[in-house]
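Per reviewer request, we include the raw input and output of the structure prediction for the construct analysed in the revised manuscript.
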Amino acid sequence: MSRENEKTLIRIAVCDDNMRLCSDIEKCIFDYRENSQEFYDVEIYYSGKTIIEDLKKGIHYDMFFLDIEIEFMNGVQVGRFIREKLQDDNTLIVYMSSYTKYAMELFEVRPMDFLIKPLNEKKIIKALETGTKLLHKGEVSFQYKQGRNWNKIYIRNIIYFKAKDREVEMITQNGTITFYEALESIYEKLEPYKFFYAHKSYLVNYFHVSEFFYDKLLMSNGDEIGIAQTRRKAVRKIQKELLYKELSDDF
């Protein structure tokens, strides 16, 4: 297992039309990660429009360093897209600007920080450390690898997994993502978060099951998943145990 695979993946997007500034921020983060317990992955953007195109494809970032005055679609518009269109209140946004006149606009987007240019290493690292602490207190995510790149998704957005030949299809609220990994390996990671087998080829998120039937499950996206005959007793047991816990938590 590679060193970065053993660490927590934190994906960061840096967006500024100043290429030199983007490069400086990226270098600062990479220098910092050498002695960090996290593996920071950085993607550079030079326009807000390009960021939104990637977000629409389901690409996820834990933290943004956003210039406010970028062309075509400014940083505030990107922030509103994240908060309002994606309904994502967990992603951290750090705004960067040479001006201080944006206070009221930024208040609506709920940024983690606002950095005044010119930036220096101390400002960047302080924001990075604060963001890392907040992310560790936030939602649990699942890490997966596509090609050479590591990505992540919040567990609450995963509906189920389907094993297909040597690949795994991850059906999410935003579409299907395909990657290479053994379903059993995924189960070992996600079993504590209420994922269970309906069939040897289907790993299901309990919280996305709309209805339980004797021989099938109706999922939140409308898909039906058959329950293998050898799994029906175990699935009924899981249903009873988790339903009992939910009812107990309500009282």
